[in-house]
Amino acid sequence: MTDITDAYFSNLIGRLETLKQALAEAMAQAASVILDAARGDKRVYVFGTGHSHMLAEEVHYRAGGLAFTVPVLVGSAMLHEGAVISSVYERTQGLVRPMLERYGMQPGDVIIIASNSGVNAAPIEAADYARDIGAKVIAITSIAYSSAIANGRRRLADVADVVLDNGLPPGDAVVDLEGTGLRVGPVSTAVGVTVINAIFAEVASELSKSGNAPVYLSANMPGAAEINQKLVKKYRPRNPHL
Predict the structure, then answer these.
(1) How far apart, in Å, do the first and last CA atoms of the chain sit?
(2) Which of 68, 164, 224, 239 sees the fewest Cβ atoms within 10 Å?
C-alpha cells in the first residue's frame, strides 16, 4: 500500500470510528423517527443531488435493505444526464417542489436529505416541502462545510428535525497532494452510506422483534424471489421506481 492509499484508508477509518460515538445520539433519534413511520405504514424517502443522490440508490431495492424506502431520483438533479447542468439545477430555486410532488409524500412520512455543503437551494427546498406536508426531515450534512460557506444563507441543518453531522471538512476531499495545494480522496459518500445503513439496520432490528421487518433478500438467496415479490407488490403503489 502506498502512502497515499494508506492515508486515505486511515483517514476514512478514523472518521468512522469518531462518528460511531459522535453520532450515537443523533442516529438513535433518526432510527426512532423512521421506526415510528414504519409502524404507521409510512414511507422513508431519500433525496440528494449530484453525488449525494447515491445515498438514495444505496437504499433502493437493496439486499438487506428495508422495502419502505423510496429513492427520489430525478435525472436533471443527478449526474448522468449532464453533470455541469445538474450543478446549476441544485442551486436554482423552485425546481425541487414539482420534482417531489410526483412521489405522493404524506403526513407522517420521513425524508432523508443528503447534502454535504448543506446550503444549495434544492436540499433546503426539499426540506421545506416535506415539513409543509407534515413529514419529518433527517439531514446528513457537514456542519463545518455549511458554516464556512453559508454567508447568511439558510442551511439544511437549520430546517431539519434530526441532523446527522458527518464531520467532514469544507471541500470533502481529505488527502493532501504534497506541494500542489490540492486535496483528493472525497469521503462524504462512504461516510453517508455507512451512517444510513447503520440506522436502517437498527430500525430493521427493532421491527424484527415483532416479526415485521420488510427486508429484501439477495436475488441469489433461497426463497428470495417469493419474499421480494411480496414486498414489491405491497410497496410498489407508493414507489415509482419499483
Answers:
(1) 41
(2) 224
